[in-house]
Specification:
CATH architecture of the largest domain: 2-Layer Sandwich
CATH superfamily of the largest domain: Fructose-1,6-Bisphosphatase, subunit A, domain 1
Structural class: alpha+beta
CATH class of the largest domain: Alpha Beta
Number of helices: 7
Radius of gyration: 17 Å
CATH topology of the largest domain: Fructose-1,6-Bisphosphatase, Chain A, domain 1
Mean pLDDT: 95
Helix content: 25-40%
Strand content: 25-35%
Amino acid sequence: MQMTAAGLDLSPLPDMARRAGAAAMAFYRKDAGVRLKADRSPLTLADEASNDVLTRELAAAYPQIPVVSEESVNAPYGERRDAPHLFIVDPVDGTREFLAANGEFTVNIALVAAGRAVFGLLYAPFLDRLYLGGPGLGAWRRDGLEAARAIATVKPRPGDEPIILMSRSHPDPDILALIARFAPYRTMVLGAALKFAALAEGAAHVYPRTRALHEWDLAAGQAIVEGAGGSMTGLDGRPIVYNTENLMAGPFLALA
């Protein structure tokens, strides 16, 4: 596996993600202490436990690189705007899926340089499955202790209906107009960043969103999709930019 990007050794990240995932799994199918944040999204003890691992260990391993996390008080834009590198993390991407105990949640870690996602890692703790990669680096999947294997996007064969990824917990009422051009098509419903993983390993072909999401929802997945040979841009065809002032990105269209 290629574990360097932007001149950095990223080999500590997989074990870091596994430790964060284990911290979250301590609350799986248990009382996770659910509260609601200001935007009415759920916050649990699992989110906080995973966040503690990630922020502490990233700071120890990469003290020169700022970290932006969904569950932390992050550096003001003026302090991180010109940082050459930035980690963007989501300690539990798919908190609703975690609470539903369907296994479809991930730990997301992305490395951003000059506004672009240059490396991404997704770890699915329930599955003990790791995805990682980046543009120009390749992409890989590793299940448990098995050897990592390269993955790649797969385009639909002539005559086959493309498979379009849809969100399990966040329906997008405007999506049908966007995907009409792919008809006839089939759909696949998945939670959280596992949709990016499905695209990267050839299980689906299109992942669209018509609304902006937080950067920690997208950055790691985009890097892996592009490492696997796919593409992801805004709906206008422009690049997705990270490390913005409001930490929002999209809408987007990701393609095999």
